[in-house]
Amino acid sequence: MRPIEHFIGGQTVVGASGRFGDVFDPNTGQVQARVQLATLSELDRAVENAAAAQKDWAKVNPQRRARVMFEFKRLLELHMDELAHLLSSEHGKVIADSKGDIQRGLEVIEFSCGIPHLLKGEYTQGAGPGIDVFSARQALGVVAGITPFNFPAMIPMWMFGPAIACGNAFILKPSERDPSVPVRLAELMMEAGAPAGILNVVQGDKDVVEAILKHPTIKAVSFVGSSDIAQSVFALGAAHGKRVQAMGGAKNHGVVLPDADLDQTVADLIGAAYGSAGERCMALPVVVPVGEETAERLRAKLLPAIAGLRVGVSTDAEAHYGPVVSAAHKARIESYIQMGADEGAELVVDGRGFALQGHEAGFFLAPTLFDRVTADMKTYQEEIFGPVLQIVRAASFEEALALPSNHQYGNGVSIFTRNGDAAREFADQVEVGMVGINVPIPVPVAYHSFGGWKRSGFGDLNQYGLDGVRFYTRTKTVTQRWPQSVGGTVTDQSFVIPTMR
Ligand code: NAD
């Protein structure tokens, strides 16, 4: 059985806990590797390595740190195929989508190449008589990231790209379900010129997460995963004096106004609802047509589009999506489908019971469609995270606006319309952090930043972009003067707080 180890101090470290997690091939349903689950002393070792390396790394000038990022980007491009196959084999997303996962992380690395410019501080000459003020952004020291299974390349890079470019050392605790790509990324960072200890991967489960949150040397923790865990990570990290950003789950709505281009909208909805088997925090699992006529026309166009979807092994270039990540997750999605039917929603297309020929033990689910879902249903209120699309019919624009606004999650939302005025009003009023206008998956580009509202995000800074730079640095502000004493006499003393009167 292939072992997946830790990566500490620039090398593979064989764990000693005797505890392992199974890593499946979701296409076959078979265990393909076993990942070590770290002991606390292994975490300590990683933190010690990181702390020792970080002191010098913070002193390396930002242009040189940027050059490591440039080289890392080149290596990612060089190894794109290999990384995509590795990612796909553990996650189950199709190869093209696996490349997208890597590419979206790579784009944050590109952003991080601009770190000399991004770290430039502020300066005021003559803030008072002979007084200048300047502020600089300094690295925090050792920081950590805890990542979910669904983007094993992109989300680690959202975090360690800006963090390391800013001069920090990083401890990555990836998902135990697809832990190989993060190790490969760390190896490539070393090859790119990052010093040993600057990026460490500590494999593990919730025990290591708790130890990270309590560790006195770790100054900041970035988390992405499900909301209950995000909330408890946020609380525990804050209680231990850390800076924490914790992104959680989602239930993104696509509002369809009567004037939308329905063919394009349906094409967009199908890709956003079923791509990656719905295992995206920016998937679009809820569609809200406005008016009965829009709902009927939309449903009529959705049905053949769903029938045309091809579910296949993740290496099938023709497949629209592959298996879900685990048997347990598949069973959870199936139980939500049953719950939806029991709650009284109309189960229009049932994706359960699908078996892919030759891969009967794989974790495959065909697409599911529900109609007449209502806001009081548990299957509407909770995140399903599978290939399940729910139609919630709204009678008016106001009702459609209220649905995502009143939902517990507020990650992404989209509106499909040709009416600029309505779209503008919607984007302005909706209580959701990321909005698409005729854009089904509005994940902001690398030089903006990513973050949801309400139970989709705890903490006040987003991932990547300028917020990422802010999260991984703290501001130091220096006020300086060079007074000239006249004949050794002190001419300036005050017991009053300095003011600018
Ligand atoms: P998860 O919450 O199960 O796991 C996330 C991380 O937390 C993993 O590294 C895991 O090892 C660790 N973990 C698991 N149980 C823990 C516990 N009890 N205490 C502390 N740590 C624990 O999430 P997942 O299933 O890997 O990922 C899917 C979830 O992530 C979905 O809810 C999805 O919406 C969300 N997600 C959110 C975003 C975002 O940016 N908002 C992005 C991607 C995924």
Notes on the protein architecture:
- This protein has helices at 40-59, 62-78, 80-91, 95-112, 115-118, 154-165, 180-192, 206-214, 227-239, 262-274, 292-307, 327-343, 378-381, 397-406, 420-429, 465-471, and strands at 2-4, 6-8, 11-13, 20-25, 30-36, 122-128, 131-139, 142-146, 169-173, 199-201, 218-224, 243-247, 253-256, 286-289, 346-349, 368-371, 388-391, 409-410, 412-416, 434-437, 453-454, 457-458, 473-481.
- The chain is of the alpha/beta class and 501 residues long.
- The chain has two domains: 2-248 and 456-478, 3-Layer(aba) Sandwich (Aldehyde Dehydrogenase, Chain A, domain 1); 253-437, 3-Layer(aba) Sandwich (Aldehyde Dehydrogenase, Chain A, domain 2).
- The strands form six sheets. The protein has a seven-stranded mixed beta sheet, sandwiched between helices.
- A hairpin with a 2-residue loop joins strand 6 and strand 7.
- The radius of gyration is 25 Å and the shape is globular.
- The mean pLDDT is 97.
- Nicotinamide-adenine-dinucleotide is lined by residues 146-151, 173, 175-176, 205-206, 209, 224-226, 229, 247-250, 281, 383, 385, 411, 452, 456.
Helix vs. strand class: alpha/beta
The overall number of domains is 2
Helix share bin: 25-40%
Low-confidence runs: none
* CATH hierarchy, class of the largest domain: Alpha Beta
Number of H- or I-type helical stretches? 16
Shape: globular
* Cα radius of gyration in angstroms: 25 Å
What gap, in angstroms, lies between the N and C termini? 73 Å
Mean pLDDT: 97
Q: In CATH terms, what is the architecture of the largest domain?
A: 3-Layer(aba) Sandwich
Number of strands: 23
Indicate the proportion of strand residues.
15-25%
Oligomer: single chain
CATH superfamily of the largest domain: Aldehyde Dehydrogenase, Chain A, domain 1
The largest beta-sheet arranges its strands as 15-16-17-14-13-19-20
InterPro entries: Ald_DH/histidinol_DH, Ald_DH_C, Ald_DH_N, Aldehyde_DH_dom, MeMal-semiAld_DH
Pfam families: Aldedh
Enzyme class: oxidoreductase
Domain Aldehyde dehydrogenase: 21-478
